[in-house]
Design a protein that fits this description.
alpha/beta, six-stranded mixed beta sheet, globular, binds adenosine-5'-triphosphate, binds magnesium ion
Length: 276
């Protein structure tokens, strides 16, 4: 069970995440929605350790991870998509995934300098990396250099690397943003499969409400850094607090508006524009 207790971060005078207390159980997928600038990405960064909270705590299975950095939290089971800046751009796709698999399995495969086991490990790691790439429909691109991948493939690779970590908690922040119409279903399928595993906890920040409706067991709404609604999808979408959070407009319309940018890369119409 992942829990945040009164999790808060201030940037100067601005409270970007404000005393968010929430628990996420294994076997559930929680969608996190809210207008631009609501604090969704910042909440993920606080959970993964990319940002340190001003106050409050992050617990996994009762263990307080608040004092730990990103790698220790990853090791504890919190999985956040890799930033491509953490990759080796001049290695191939396969080599990058193999390194991620190897990093995850380090410790489980210490045989000393035994050439046979090094070779068989290498083979097993390559096999696993290949499977992960098949999972994101990138098996045909495994020999490409990461630096030369188009944007959609880079995003798919991020998901393959997250899978390689085999975390307990998966955090997806707009996983299909920037993907083409044929790429997005590949990622959504993967999330659907993950969801079937009762040991996995999934958090999904997603602006597309059709995706949220289909996948989420629960929706939480962040607004100005605060948790303003939490419950079953249909209930939350219809709740007065969501109407208020979405500027008093019919929530369905408001969400549809928030979630459908008219042009890629531009903030949605009617949403609060991101600070530069
Ligand atoms: N490192 C930072 N320094 C200062 N302010 C920050 C920093 N990171 C985020 N913020 C601010 O915190 C607020 C929350 O931003 P965040 O990116 O978490 O929003 P979001 O809900 O993910 O929005 P979007 O839907 O546009 O991705 C914004 O006002 C943002 O400008
Ligand atoms: Mg964000």
């Amino acid at each position: 069970m992942l829990e945040t207790k009164d999790l808060t971060i201030r940037f100067g005078g601005h409270v970007a995440v404000n005393a968010v207390s929430c628990a996420f159980a294994p076997g559930t997928l929680t969608a996190i929605v809210g207008p631009n600038g609501a604090g969704k990405t910042t909440y993920f960064n606080l959970i993964s350790g990319q940002l340190r909270s001003s106050s409050g705590s992050v617990l996994l299975d009762g263990r307080d991870l608040s004092g730990l950095g990103v790698s220790a939290r990853t090791h504890a089971g919190l999985g956040r998509a890799f930033q491509l800046t953490n990759l080796f751009p001049n290695l191939t796709v396969l080599e990058n995934v193999r390194l991620a698999v190897q990093a995850t399995r380090a410790g489980a495969h210490r045989h000393g300098l035994n050439l046979w086991s090094i070779w068989s490990d290498h083979k097993a790691l390559t096999q696993r990396a290949h499977e992960l790439l098949e999972g994101v429909s990138m098996a045909g691109k495994q020999e490409m250099l990461v630096a030369s991948l188009p944007h959609g493939d880079q995003r798919k690779l991020e998901v393959a690397l997250l899978m390689a970590l085999e975390p307990k908690v998966f955090m997806f922040d707009e996983p299909t943003a920037g993907m083409s119409a044929d790429e997005a279903p590949v990622i959504l399928d993967l999330i659907r499969k993950l969801k079937a595993d009762p040991r996995k906890t999934i958090l999904l920040v997603e602006h597309k409400m059709d995706v949220v409706r289909e996948l989420a067991d629960r929706i939480i709404v962040l607004h100005n850094g605060a948790l303003v609604a939490d419950g079953e999808p249909a209930q939350v979408i219809a709740s007065p607090v969501v109407q208020e959070a979405y500027l008093g407009v019919n929530p369905q319309d408001a969400l549809a508006q928030e979630v459908a940018p008219t042009q890629p890369g531009l903030p949605p119409q009617g949403g609060r524009r991101k600070a530069p």
